[in-house]
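agent> Task received from the user: take the single chain below, predict its 3D structure, and emit structure tokens. No templates, no multimer pairing.
agent> Plan: (1) validate residues, (2) run structure prediction, (3) serialize to tokens, (4) report one or two observations.
agent> Step 1 OK, no nonstandard residues flagged.
tool_call: predict_structure(input=
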Amino acid sequence: MDRNIKLNLLDRTIGYISPSWGYARAAWRNSFVRNFYDSGSNGRITSGWNAINAPAEQTNQMSRDKIRARARDLERNSDIGESIIGAFVRNVIGTGIILQSKILNSNGDEADTLNEQIEEAFEDWCRAKNCDIAGELSFHQMQAMAMRRMIVDGGILFIKSIIDGKFVLQVREVDDIDTSYYLVGSGKKIINGIELNEYNGPVKYHLKKTSPDGLFSGERQEISADRVIFLHDKIRPSQIREISRLARTAGRVKDVNEFVEAVSIKERILACLSIFIKKMLPGGGIGKFNNTIDTETELPEQIIAPGMINHLQPGDDVQIVNPAGQASNAKEFIAIQQRLAASGQGLSYEVASRDMSKSNYSSARQGLLEDQKTYKPEQKYIIETFCMEVYTSWLIWAVLAGEINIPDFWQNKKKYMRHKWYPPGWSWIDPLKEVKANQIALGSGQTTHAEICAGNGLDWKDVFRQLAKEQKLAKKIGLKLGEYNNANESEENESKESEESTSGGDNSN
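)
tool_result: status=success, residues=509
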């Protein structure tokens, strides 16, 4: 009888009358249930797969702190872990996501003077001494820290404040949220330090008050949610707090680190050459041949030097211990594990390992395109959730503080809030091939200048304006731009005309 077939009460009752009938009934029922999903069966293979359905916060809160601590350990001590984190920071943030004001005049053209004034004022505010309450981080550094902490810690908090009449940001770690504060009832719902409304939207954040050395003073402060920018991934509707992204791959990265350490120790042992001198006669002697005595073992110390020639005492015998063996092939194992760890974060093996030895142009380009599909949603999230929120609050403060003079700002607030953020672009593997491909795509109407410029982190209108300025200046001083390209085009046209005339002569004959 198959032990995997489970008999219920009715099966057993029927089995007393007809064992074959009861067993067949149970077998058919179990077979029918298992045929829908293999992963939902209760067979031998899946017998140890025990999973529980629970709200996101119940699932995360038991392991959140431990996973975050382990992710930080990998950030500090794992080169593989840092390669994944660094790939996101380099490609999503890079040198920083740049603001451009896009205010329009009444005729629909951009108000260049006012836009430049706003951009210059915001660029000055982005300096560390102006935007950070502690005066240590510039706004671009905050962007990079936000990306890094979202990967490692799962989230980060930015608190908007007015200090001494200046609009500043305070950066707080998710550790500062008082998770011990839990209250449901009395008209309030506070879960893991966040006060929620009836729709589970944040109302207040309850943060720990800490001393300068980071110790919890036992007091907490309540901060209204409209002052807090809480950057974190929300992947389930019931999720309230963050969870480290490295939770998916931390175990694998840790295994690889331990494997590499074990291989390294083995290699060091294999490189060792040990020599033991077996004394047949009591040691000792006088004069210059006397050896130094180790005070712990009370045996003479011996030193091996390259090319050394020494004489043994009568009766001494030398035994050499040379560990035999060969280091295991660790390269393939590490590469596979690193590939899986990178793919778990949506990255290619090449970008995480910086190993391009097995790549060609096509595979490298396809990997780059897939990586960009991972980076672009991250850029969009940082822009919409962090950059736009900060800029909106800053512009309102700048108008109120008189930093920027816009008399009808409150009557046309939406008009003056118009702006755009430009993340860093990506360089191509073979720029010549990409330029030719863009030329063909433009000529056939498959793309636009706006799409091409956006891929390089540029605004096509700014590019056109700059080109017009350069051509105007070149014409003024008598410089011919693009003369080399024009010459090449004329040579190619002449060559084509010559080939066409030759082929025409052949056809006439």
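agent> Step 4: summary for the user.
The first helix runs from residue 9 to 17.
agent> Done.
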